[in-house]
What does this fold into?
Amino acid sequence: MQRNGVRLMTDISKGVIRAEFPYYVFYTSLMRLQCVAIASLIRLKKLKKRGDNQMSERMEFNKKGEEVLEFLDIYGAVRLRYMERLFPNSDKIISYLIKNQRLFIISDESYISTDPGHRPDKCLTAALGVLADVLERVQGYTKATPPAQISFVTHSGDYYEIIYVGYGMEAMVTAALETQLAAKKLNQVKTDTAKRMIIVEDIHQIERLNIKGTTRFALVKPDGSLNYYKAGS
It folds into this structure.
């Protein structure tokens, strides 16, 4: 006889009833177990991938955070609006570092620094503004040897210096550059091929400056904004 798809075999002589499962019942149960196992494996792989992605994102977040801190250790107090351009999509990282007191907002909440006692350097601040304006052309940059504030190399291989010339400091900066170039010649350094972007505080300074390699002048305004003038125009 058969009950629920299971055939019951009766052994009258021994008074025992034996159940024999048809093959398709066994096969169906095995398939269900395999499906459950596969689904569990897929779920575990998804969880692992999600965990790996989260770990990767956290590592990338920490890496960018260290880059921001290292940059500010070198350049001191930097305008927040320049940071947004020099380090795109860094607002969450900066907020996190401020919250954990590794960065501090200073000077009327428009600058950030790793040291709450830092005060902005107007020359370096203006140079960073110029750098932010030409960043798409820049392959790499560094803090430069005075009288330059920042030097950078473009994707096309040109070497530039950004130099701030305060009002009344034209002769002093020009002399410092000439001395620097003369020292390079004595040390048999290759011919100076640097291009220079000169920052001034007053438009009338431009006619008093004759610095080799100048390609552009940048007039810095009290609010930190910059107007550019082509050299020789």
